[in-house]
Amino acid sequence: MSWLTAENLALVFGALTALSVLLYAILDGYDLGVGITLPMHEEAWRDTAIASIGPFWDANETWLVLAVGLLLVAFPAAHSAILHALYLPAALLLIGLILRGVAFDFRAKVKPERKRNWDWTFKFGSFLATFSQGFMLGIYVMGLEYRTGSIIFACFSGLCVTAAYAMIGNAWLIGKTTGDLQRRAIRQCKLAGVWTLAGILAVSAINPLVNANVYQVWTQPPLAYFFSAIPLLCFAMFALGYVALKRLPLPDDRGAWLPFFICKVIFICSFVGLALSFYPFVVPNQLTLYEAASSQESLTIIFFGAVIVIPIIAAYTAVAYYAFRGKADGLKYY
Amino acid sequence: MLDTLILSRIQFAANISFHILFPTITIALGWLLVYFKIRFDLSQHPVWMRAYRFWVKVFALTFALGVVSGITMSFQFGTNWPGFMETVGNIAGPLLAYEILTAFFLEATMLGIMLFGFNKVPRWLHTLATLLVAVGTTMSAFWILVLNSWMQTPVGFEMRDGVAHATDWFAIIFNPSFPYRFTHMMMASALTVCFLVAGISAYRLYRGDNKKAPRITLKTALFSAALLAPLQAFIGDLHGLNTLEHQPAKIAAMEGIWHTEQGAPLVLFAIPDAETQQNRFAIEIPKLASFILTHDFNGELKGINEFPDAHPPVAPVFYSFRVMVGIGLLMLAVAWWCSLRLYRHGELSQLQYKVLIGMSFSGWIATLAGWYVTEIGRQPYLIHGVLKTRDAVTTVAGEQVALTLIMYLVLYVVLLIAYVRTIFWLAKRAIDVEEYDLSLPGLPERKTPLATTGAEQ
């Protein structure tokens, strides 16, 4: 395997790590989003909303473990530089994830009078996790530095990432539910979409101003012409999504999965946009993929494992989604 | 100025101690559920499904706590111990990657089908999912114990410019202490689950539950414990011999041997004093330690004095070891005492119920104590003979570590209380409700006579 050079391996693992982060953002994104906008005034709605993500959330969260794990094993120097700088927000993220993960199970098992407290814990934990993620993204974009300006920006980014998760979470609910809960999800999705759009516009404007090479990526012909397709597609999706949400729900539940599909495209566009902005850096302006990569021999070993196992993971994940297709009914533990 | 090293060590200890509680239960409980499910599939007798139903709830809750506390671990390496991956990343990295790829996704995805898929997938697929969850948890234990054992007995690598490079993956995976540590931990998990199941089943029966399911689970758990407890003592002994060969300083601390001696006594209890390098108030059995470890009453055991700069702190290792062995022996005694009575009379005495209830979580204490022996016993090294703990620590400010440590500790205490209370609440609720009601539509594929009558009416 002569093409498995150190450089190619670094690129492959960079791509794999990026793919895991993207899959995490989309997959755990929708279940975090359901958590953030959990309807606190209607217990039956909460049960349905949580039932819709019940079989999936655990596997979704595993993508974060894989993403952080890949960063750790393939780019250890980057893992330690990034998490060193993001020490406190990362701890808050973990606490958020712990709270929501356990609340999810406790709510179904504790005394009835305590269930509502765990629902609040679920909602709060989801919010803490998404806000921390957005905050971390903001600090990352600003070059992993804490200045007044970057902290304000990171807080704004925290809110916008929360909005993006709320958007995709409600888009998921539109597909998974019916009736009043579905109508609520449509409203919430619209609202969250506006905030998400604002966030994407803000990052798109500020990022090139802060980072000189980002400016170059998006303005240097001829590649910039191709790259411009990404934001165009993204904004077109917002427009399409707005039209779609105005018309939903349709008879026979037609198009109920369209918003979720649109959200996925928006997530992919935003992510690819960010990845292109920073390539080849894995720590902005400090460390490239190629400098941070582990030794060739250990990456080769992981590479073969990944090539064999990832298709299998995809296959049984497909089985799980197929088994739980359709509207969420009152799922119960068995 | 707060000391980042000691705080990071406490934080790692707190995180991993909290985390290991839950996998210790899910590893063996997963297999117990497979057993219940297969018994149900074969016999169609609803009692197996009732046993399954009750314990799958405990499993789900435990699994959730294990997953979320495990995510913390994957961050810890980078946040607090960057020197670890810098030095041995080429070996630890692939092992961790294989754990995630072959175990985490499998168990997480199959868990969804196992918990929610009973009515949505064919019967065989549900059983297969249950099996794959058990396989997944065991695989994940396999990989993480490979890594931990390699840190204790590192082989199959060479150091180039201060960085470890793998030379023999087979040797790394099946490193000298791995077979012992893996079996010892699997048995620890099994015994922990035996006593949890026995304790909770005893609680239900003690509170007047007259259903068949808790009786069956009590019997299964007690008889298994009676079988496994002596086996565990035997495996533990082999593990000790292995440690003597590779990490003699750890054995010296475990046995409280300060100075190399022939015919070393077995110290039952003492207060090890690091100042004077002696045991105070020692109660000893002459020559027994030498006999156990060298199979010769006058065999020589190396003392702490042989390892002037590279020995662990004696007291915590010494005490933890006695706690582990003490609980192990107590489990052995209780398992046999209760099993014999159950075998002869078909039920336990009130006192036995109370003892079992009290010992519901005794496996946790023994498991933690055992891990403290082996992990504190590895100090001052992080990787035995290769990397010292203090050389791997982060440069994050002590205040930040202290702040996160407090947050974690508060959270863990709250969650532990909630967890134990919820398990007992589930048991209490199960006394009044039937876990698996045959009159519900669509549940059994082959209808038993009872269910058929129900459907005709």
From TrEMBL, chain A:
UniProt key word Signal: no
Domain of life: Bacteria
Keyword Transmembrane helix among record annotations: yes
Membrane topology recorded in Swiss-Prot or TrEMBL: Multi-pass membrane protein
Keyword vocabulary terms for this entry: Cell membrane, Membrane, Transmembrane, Transmembrane helix
Cross-referenced InterPro entries: Cyt-d_oxidase_su2 (IPR003317)
One Pfam family in the UniProt entry: Cyt_bd_oxida_II
Cell location: Cell membrane
Record field: transmembrane: 6-27, 85-103, 124-143, 149-168, 189-210, 222-245, 257-281, 301-324
Family per record: Belongs to the cytochrome ubiquinol oxidase subunit 2 family.
Stored NCBIfam families: cydB
Name recorded for this polypeptide: Cytochrome bd ubiquinol oxidase subunit II
Organism: Alishewanella tabrizica
Lineage: Bacteria, Pseudomonadati, Pseudomonadota, Gammaproteobacteria, Alteromonadales
TrEMBL record, chain B:
Alphabetically ordered keywords of this record: Cell membrane, Electron transport, Heme, Iron, Membrane, Metal-binding, Transmembrane, Transmembrane helix, Transport
Keyword Cell membrane recorded: yes
The keyword Membrane is annotated on this UniProt entry: yes
Pfam name, any one: Cyt_bd_oxida_I
Annotated InterPro entries: Cyt-d_ubiquinol_oxidase_su_1
Annotated signal sequence range: none
Ranges in a coiled coil: none
Subcellular location: Cell inner membrane; Cell membrane
Membrane spanning residue stretches: 12-34, 54-75, 95-116, 128-151, 185-206, 218-235, 319-343, 355-373, 401-420
Membrane topology, record value: Multi-pass membrane protein
PANTHER family: CYTOCHROME BD MENAQUINOL OXIDASE SUBUNIT I-RELATED, CYTOCHROME D UBIQUINOL OXIDASE
Protein family: Belongs to the cytochrome ubiquinol oxidase subunit 1 family.
Protein name, entry field: Cytochrome ubiquinol oxidase subunit I
Origin species: Alishewanella tabrizica
